């Protein structure tokens, strides 16, 4: 009986979290940043050359897959800083900073934190989407994130409120005209890598959900207590 109950709990957890976020073409989100080594092959399987230009990971339930690639792979977004979330008092920069990124990676779904947003639950910043910017990076200026060290005592706020807008990669993403930064790596094969040059979100030019296609759970790790 105990074994059956354990299996039942896992199944309920997976079904309850099965809906991907159908986000608008523009809106608000949170932004964090993470270390992505140069030439690293991330979840989408985009070529290493893409890391020489601005890239980001998107929170899992907006990314559209729990494993490998998802519909967000290759999409370009214009991200604009608004204000900090965790600092007190909130920091509102004097200048507007924006960056156009290509999504090449996934920020895994967690119970809490910045990539925990789902269709029915916001993250710690009250948003469903989080963009995890690959930064520091040679592709982005060292002073991209504004700061006020004299007031706060540090320069990296860690989390920002932002606006996002889906944009075409052509004419917007810095790596679009560099063929060495486009496409997916060959050695993984089309079944394990998907990184369109200019996806629009339609099935004929965008990645499917790898986890949906292969019957992989939407949520890989959920504490049993979450189902009680």
Automatic annotation (TrEMBL):
Which Pfam family, an example, fits this chain?
A: EXPB1_D1
Give the residue range of the signal peptide: 1-17
Top-rank taxon, per record: Eukaryota
Keywords of this protein's UniProt record, alphabetized?
Answer: Signal
Annotated protein name in UniProt? RlpA-like double-psi beta-barrel-protein domain-containing protein-containing protein
What is the native source organism of this protein?
Answer: Schizophyllum amplum
